[in-house]
Amino acid sequence: MEIESEQIFTNRMPRNIKLLFIIVAVFIIIAGIYHAISLIFINDDAFITFRYVDNLVRGNGPVYNAGERVEGYTNFFWLTLLALCSNLYANADPVLLSKILGIIFFSATLILFIVTNLKFQNEKNNFVYLLPLTSIALALHRDFCAYATSGLETSMFTFFVSCTFLLLITHKSERGLLLSGLLMVLTMLTRPDGFLFFISACIFILIKYKKPSIPLILFSLPTILLFLPYWIWRYNYYGYFFPNTFYAKSIDIPYYSQGLNYLFVYLKVYYVFIIVIFIEIIFIGKVLKTFINRRSELNFLDYLKEDKIIPSSILLAGIFVLFYF
């Protein structure tokens, strides 16, 4: 993520604070891994993927039954990674591999937010060193920890999404845009709904840059060169626009209300996050109020492109959440 080592631990950070931060960070990672392992289980849906992995390793292709081209999975990159690791390690059990990889990506996500927290504090020359709250929340989050060992692609998907947007927000070069675009391709290959994140990222680029055409092309280039050929291959191989699970569950009628049901159940369990919704509403209100007071000076998009308008990112987050659910 183009984070130079000297930017992370600088002389601006007092030695005792640096040591305390490292101790806390290590404790968070260990506690998170312990929490995840204590909740270890295998989701029944994962065995569908394991069946595809087994056939792929045997040379039958990505199929559930040999000779029948049915796309019953929705995690191509996860499936491919399991098959590759199984081949490399003498046909290792994909169940065990999925647990190991899940813990690896789970830990990588915690480390990612710890490093990001430290980087932002140093860039702002801030001597009030806050705890890595995002990593703490993830290490304590029961479902996030449980799904790290579920056999599903959840941890890997979360890691790719987090990397993509952190790099998209913090990059300072064209190479950063290309790399974030490549990470977005991995996100979409991991799960089909990653495409919604791609749309959200494109909206962010359109708002962030005064001349967004070049940044948008650079970000989208990996999708055009890598994801589009993959999609053409899978369409020719399976013969359908969407995976089979889409047609089996929706019967050609998208179940849009289910997203709201998931949101309601989630907030019912993790009701503390209701506060986040209110904070989102407050920030959006402030953004709109400030714009109304300045609407004679510039239009709304130009207003959001101003570097000092931090809530613009929060506004985009709100738009995405509504779109995603």
Q: Which helices and strands occur, and which strands form pairs?
A:
Blueprint (H helix, E strand, L loop, with lengths): L4 H4 L6 H24 L7 H12 L18 H13 L5 H30 L9 H8 L1 H5 L7 H17 L3 H17 L3 H15 L4 H26 L5 H7 L6 H13 L4 H21 L5 H6 L5 H14 L1
Structure description:
The chain has 2 domains: 243 residues, no CATH class; 71 residues, no CATH class. 71% of the residues lie in helices and 0% in strands. The longest helix is centred in the middle third of the chain and has 30 residues. The chain is mostly helical and 325 residues long. The N terminus and C terminus are likely disordered. It contains 16 helices and no strands.
Head-to-tail CA distance between termini? 29 Å
Percent of residues in helices comes to over 70%
User: Which structural category do the helix and sheet elements fall into?
Assistant: mainly alpha
Secondary-structure element pattern, one letter each: HHHHHHHHHHHHHHHH
Strand % is: under 5%
Low-confidence stretches: 1-11, 308-312, 314-325
- How many domains is the backbone divided into? 2
Quaternary state of the chains: single chain
Number of strands: 0
The whole-number mean of residue pLDDT values reads 81
Task: Quickly count the helices.
Answer: 16
Instruction: Describe the global form.
Output: globular
Largest sheet: none
Radius of gyration over all CA atoms, rounded: 22 Å
Fill in the keyword field for this structure.
globular, mainly alpha, 325 residues, disordered C terminus, single chain
Quick synopsis:
This protein has 2 domains: 10-252, no CATH class; 255-325, no CATH class.
